[in-house]
């Protein structure tokens, strides 16, 4: 009790306060040093993780470059996609990682295309979604995309990479030539016992560019080989400043 009461002595209180201030002044630099060390370490650790992530992403980009040699995708698209991904490595690593996955999916499907006569439409549609997501990095708000898909058509067989070829043609000859960009719309439906695919794009039909080229001629030839005279393909101007590529294929029985 006596020891407790002594703190009420003004002289003792002053002595304790003086000693506390002295210790605080002496210890403050050390506290600041330790706090500084912690924050520096934390910053360096974050920086190191960021650098490691960047190196990994750049390594994946180089791996993609090697894969493109074996693919049959338009080299201009690959070049643009890789440049977009490189820019994202610094600006938005998470989006860069997603873009790498999207491009890998496209390249994988392209390399498998020679081995398959047909694939389910759903698989083709997913590839086109990856393709348009990559193109959106380049065009940004200039590229608008809409899908009008009858889910019952997702199991229908279609030539591999055909839809991607037609969408790429719409980007090249349609959206790419519009100052303000435009709309790409993908439609899949049943009509007159046919599976009808329509790819619409903003622009005007130019018969010397839209309807020719290896990709378009290849589409015609593949449809003829697979379905004979039962399939039809045309590119036409449908008014309202829109061009559409229309593919009609006979409905095929699908067995689960």
Short description:
With 256 residues, the protein is an alpha+beta fold.
Describe the structure.
- With 256 residues, the chain is of the alpha+beta class.
- The chain folds into two domains: 1-115, no CATH class; 142-256, Heat Shock Protein 90, CATH 3.30.565.
- It contains seven helices and seven strands.
- The strands form two sheets. The protein has a five-stranded mixed beta sheet, covered by helices on one side.
- The model is unreliable at 1-8, 24-30 and 32-37 (pLDDT under 50).
Architecture blueprint of SSEs:
Elements: H1 2-5, H2 10-68, H3 75-91, H4 93-112, E1 119-120, H5 121-139, E2 143-149, E3 157-158, H6 162-173, E4 182-191, E5 194-202, H7 214-227, E6 232-239, E7 242-250
Parallel strand pairs: 2-4
Antiparallel strand pairs: 1-3, 4-5, 5-7, 6-7
Helix pairs in contact: 2-3, 2-4, 3-4, 3-5, 4-5, 5-6
How far apart the termini lie comes to 90 Å
Task: Please bin the fraction of helical residues.
Answer: 55-70%
Order of helices and strands: HHHHEHEEHEEHEE
- The overall average pLDDT, rounded, is 78
Q: Which strands sit side by side, in order, in the main sheet?
A: 2-4-5-7-6
Kindly state the number of beta strands: 7
Biggest sheet details: 5 strands, mixed
Question: What integer value in Å does the Rg equal?
Answer: 31 Å
Structural class: alpha+beta
Tally of alpha and pi helices: 7
Strand content: 15-25%
- Name the poorly predicted regions: 1-8, 24-30, 32-37
Instruction: Describe the global form.
Output: globular
How many domains comprise the coordinates? 2
């Amino acid at each position: 009790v006596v020891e407790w009461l002594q703190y009420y002595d003004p002289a003792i209180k002053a002595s304790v306060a003086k000693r506390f201030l002295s210790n605080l002044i002496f210890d403050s630099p050390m506290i600041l040093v330790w706090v500084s060390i912690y924050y520096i370490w934390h910053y360096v650790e974050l920086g190191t993780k960021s650098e490691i992530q960047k190196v990994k992403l750049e390594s994946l980009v180089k791996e993609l470059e090697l894969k493109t040699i074996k693919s049959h995708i338009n080299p201009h698209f690959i070049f643009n996609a890789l440049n977009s991904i490189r820019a994202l490595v610094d600006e938005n690593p998470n989006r860069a990682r997603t873009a790498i996955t999207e491009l890998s999916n496209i390249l994988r499907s392209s390399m498998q295309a020679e081995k398959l006569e047909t694939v389910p439409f759903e698989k083709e549609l997913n590839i086109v979604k990856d393709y348009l997501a990559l193109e959106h990095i380049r065009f940004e708000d200039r590229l608008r995309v809409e899908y009008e898909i009858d889910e019952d058509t997702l199991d229908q067989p279609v030539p591999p990479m055909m839809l991607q070829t037609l969408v790429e043609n719409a980007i090249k000859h349609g959206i790419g030539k519009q100052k303000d960009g435009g709309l790409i719309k993908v439609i899949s439906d049943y009509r007159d016992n046919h599976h009808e695919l329509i790819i619409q794009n903003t622009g005007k039909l130019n018969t010397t560019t839209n309807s020719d080229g290896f990709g378009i001629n290849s589409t015609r030839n593949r449809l003829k080989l697979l379905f004979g005279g039962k399939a039809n393909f045309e590119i036409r101007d449908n008014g309202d400043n829109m061009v559409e590529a229309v593919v009609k294929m006979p409905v095929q029985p699908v067995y689960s």
